[in-house]
Specification:
The chain is an alpha+beta fold. The protein has a single domain, classed as Oxidoreductase, molybdopterin-binding domain (Sulfite Oxidase, Chain A, domain 2). 14% of the residues lie in helices and 21% in strands. The strands form 2 sheets. Strands 3, 4, 7, 8, 9, 11 and 12 form a 7-stranded mixed sheet that branches. It has a 5-stranded mixed sheet with strand order 2-1-10-5-6. It starts with 21 loop residues before the first helix and ends in a 6-residue tail after the last helix.
Length: 314
């Protein structure tokens, strides 16, 4: 029996690609037509892009597309960001990240896991093949983008580091560098206590949509977008997508999360995109597309309900 096509799958010809990798994609298409390269997501991992940081673009995984709108303009997606460590103004973050050092970068792996210790980005790239995926991105503030991320599925990462059977959650922590991030400095009066922290259940982290990203638009992640390593879980509000990760810890008990601790009446632990559940201060039924401002209906789980709703059946 032919399997049901997921709602986000779209032929590549209908997606607007960035100029920076159009030529490469035409070459790959020719190889696929010649039978020399698989043209779909079933390509073995050995054919996915393995490279050190800075070697982009990666091959696009055709199982992950967006069928109702084109890509957000790259300049818009890298100029309109929430990153409160640097600025509370979305259009001001890009101008405040100049002192932020992202190379070298170490990530500590800790807790209930076999492979404990520190890993640098080269360790990740050496063990975890990367790919490009196009995902919807939905902020809790009711604005949205469509972004091509480069990264590796978290399931591959979990298979590599091997959480212990007692582990049930994955906690992530971002950096604390007050000398580099203006709003982390003493006396900044941002109203927030850093560093930022987030978490997923291992069931969520193992879902094939969950991604650790290190690139965007066929290029290395800019600092304002969460360089050098960030979380991308497209069925959740953007606040769950922690940036600039320095620690990944596996725990038995459910960890606290930043916004749920700060305002539990406004931000749930899961923070899934649920258009029928309003934020206390605004509706979540529709969203504003960046940058043109078009208002569209918000989809349950941001359009990924077929793939993730079963995680929350209880």
């Amino acid at each position: 029996m032919k399997s049901k096509q997921r709602s986000w799958i779209l032929p590549d010809r209908e997606i607007t690609a960035e100029d920076s990798y159009l030529d490469r994609r035409q070459v790959l298409k020719g190889l696929a037509l010649a039978g020399l390269l698989p043209a779909c997501s079933s390509a073995p991992s050995s054919l996915l892009f393995r490279a050190p940081l800075g070697s982009y673009p990666a091959l696009r995984n055709m199982a992950f597309q967006v069928n109702e709108r084109g890509l957000t303009d790259e300049i818009a997606a890298t100029s309109y960001n929430n990153f409160y460590e640097f600025s509370l103004k979305k259009d001001g973050v890009k101008d405040m990240v100049g002192d932020f050092v992202t190379n070298p970068w170490k990530v500590e792996i800790a807790g209930l896991v076999e492979k404990k210790g520190e890993a640098d980005l080269e360790d990740f790239f050496r063990h975890l093949p990367s790919e490009e995926r196009i995902y919807r991105f939905r902020c809790v503030e009711a604005w949205a983008m469509t972004v091509p991320w480069t990264g590796f599925p978290i399931k591959r990462f979990l298979d590599w580091v091997k959480p212990l059977t007692a582990a049930r959650y994955m906690r992530m922590l971002t950096f604390l560098r007050p000398e580099q991030a203006a709003n982390q400095a003493p006396g900044a009066n941002s109203g927030y206590s850093f560093p930022y922290y987030e978490a997923l259940s291992l069931e969520e982290a193992s879902n094939e949509l969950s991604l650790f990203a290190h690139g965007i638009y066929g290029k290395e992640l800019p600092r304002q977008n969460g360089a050098p390593l960030r979380l991308v879980v497209p069925w959740k509000y953007g606040l769950k997508n922690i940036k600039s990760i320095v620690r990944i810890e596996f725990t038995r008990e459910r960890p606290a999360t930043f916004w749920n601790d700060l305002k539990p009446q406004e931000y749930s632990w899961h923070s899934n995109v649920e258009p029928e559940v309003p934020h206390p201060r605004w509706s979540q039924a529709s969203e504003r597309l960046i940058p043109d401002g078009e208002r569209v209906d918000t989809l349950p789980y941001n359009g990924y309900a077929d793939h993730v709703a079963q995680l929350y059946a209880d």
